[in-house]
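Quick review question:
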């Protein structure tokens, strides 16, 4: 069966890169990190695939497989427009080795999630991902539990943003859907925000509709201020459609649910199925 039909082959980085050239994916540098839709001329939402959970499986056994770098390339082959990783201070999943290889191999754009610490600023300045999303980080958390409190950390965050944007990296902040946080993100110089969708994903019925309306309002406010608008956290094949339909949202970052499905059906098929839902939502709504 052809790779184009969703089979996940045993492959190496070189094999996947040759396949990318056959498919016509442009080389790194063909796009600007400040443009909305690299390689695209439509108004559909981009999909960023977070491969942290592939690294989680590897680190559970302190092994060499599965490799998140190979997973990222398969995601790109399936149509992902961005690869996202979170390099944590405790290195519980993604390692510096992964980030270095991803910088060399990713052909779309590389989004690094990180805390605004001196260690991470130094690493990011050296590796130069295309974009950085600043996130909160707590040692005891299983996953990121909420957005960054920009209002209370403006001086620290502004300093980090200035340093990294001077290095040519597009800077954004992961925030809760709150107007005050949007205004603070604009004030500290962020180019974009990523709206935390965790509460929307955690509730149902009228409560979920209320959360959706809140996200819509925040997205509208951010766009009016000239910020790019991304969203993510706990989005699934079941709940992504209403978020993808919001006109101001440019990119969704999804990790766990795609990787969970990829374990059963393969990375390419899992990514394509999510892309189909996202694109259908934008076309019909």
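Suggested answer, residue by residue:
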């Amino acid at each position: 069966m052809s790779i184009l039909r969703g089979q996940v082959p045993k492959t190496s980085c070189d094999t996947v890169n040759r396949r990318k050239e056959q498919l016509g994916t442009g080389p790194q540098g063909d796009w600007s990190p400040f443009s909305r839709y690299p390689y695209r001329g439509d108004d559909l939402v981009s999909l960023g695939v977070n491969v942290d959970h592939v690294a989680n499986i590897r680190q559970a056994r302190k092994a060499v497989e599965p490799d998140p770098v190979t997973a990222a390339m398969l995601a790109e082959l399936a149509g992902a427009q961005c690869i996202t990783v979170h390099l944590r201070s405790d290195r519980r999943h993604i390692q510096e080795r992964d980030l270095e290889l991803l910088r060399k191999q990713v052909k779309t754009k590389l989004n690094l999630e990180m805390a605004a610490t001196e260690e991470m600023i130094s690493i990011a300045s050296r590796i130069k991902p295309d974009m950085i999303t600043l996130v909160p980080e707590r040692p005891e958390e299983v996953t990121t539990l909420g957005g960054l409190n920009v209002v209370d950390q403006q001086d620290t965050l502004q300093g980090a943003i200035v340093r990294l944007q001077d290095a040519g990296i597009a800077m954004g902040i992961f925030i809760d859907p709150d107007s005050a946080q949007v205004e603070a993100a604009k004030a500290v110089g962020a180019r974009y925000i990523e709206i935390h969708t965790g509460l929307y994903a955690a509730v149902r019925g009228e409560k979920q509709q209320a959360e959706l309306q809140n996200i819509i309002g925040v997205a509208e406010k951010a766009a009016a201020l000239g910020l790019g608008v991304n969203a993510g956290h706990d989005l699934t094949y079941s709940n992504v459609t209403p978020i993808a339909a919001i006109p101001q949202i440019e990119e969704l970052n999804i990790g766990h649910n795609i990787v969970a499905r990829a374990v059963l059906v393969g990375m390419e098929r899992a990514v394509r199925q999510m892309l189909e839902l996202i694109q259908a939502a934008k076309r019909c709504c």
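Why it works: The radius of gyration is 18 Å. Residues 1-41 have pLDDT under 50 and may be disordered.
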